[in-house]
Amino acid sequence: MRKLVAVAAASVALTFLPVPHAGAQGDPKIPNGEAGWCPGGKAPGYGGQHWCLGEAFPDGSFYAQMWSLGPGGPFAPGAWHKTASCKAWVNGQIQGGLPYGGVPQCGGGPNTIHL
């Protein structure tokens, strides 16, 4: 009986352990702000936005995930977007296009990744 109670207690305890997000610490090119995985660093945005950056590709482009306030405005909780988009630094700001011809390359990957 004691073993049964011990097994049941252990099962209940394991149920409440936090499970890491699947992409928490995977590819350094793909950021995950929700898990705090920003290998390229973090950057401020406009109007309360924040960016979680992936490691840069050789051309300087990188995937970036944005955190912003919800539709409820400044009094509602914010959230990380469920996508990361290919971006680049342009004149000290995170932008969607490179100065030499438009769309960042991000290693030939898609422009947007669903996380």
Describe it.
By secondary structure, this protein is an alpha+beta fold. The protein is 12% helix and 29% strand. The chain has one domain (25-114). The longest helix is centred in the N-terminal third of the chain and has 14 residues, at 2-15. Mean pLDDT is 77; it is low at 1-24.
Write the layout of secondary structure elements.
Layout: H1 2-15, E1 41-44, E2 50-53, E3 62-69, E4 78-80, E5 83-90, E6 93-95, E7 112-114
Antiparallel strand pairs: 1-2, 2-3, 3-4, 3-5, 5-6, 5-7
Uncertain runs are 1-24
Helix content: 10-25%
Listing every helix as H and every strand as E from the N terminus to the C terminus, the arrangement reads HEEEEEEE
Distance between the termini: 45 Å
Global Rg: 19 Å
Mean pLDDT over the full residue set: 77
- Annotation field: number of helices: 1
Shape: globular
- Oligomeric state: single chain
Tally the structural domains.
1
Brief synopsis:
This protein has one helix spanning 2-15, and strands at 41-44, 50-53, 62-69, 78-80, 83-90, 93-95, 112-114.
Summary tags:
single chain; 115 residues; alpha+beta; seven-stranded antiparallel β-sheet; 1 helix; 12% helix
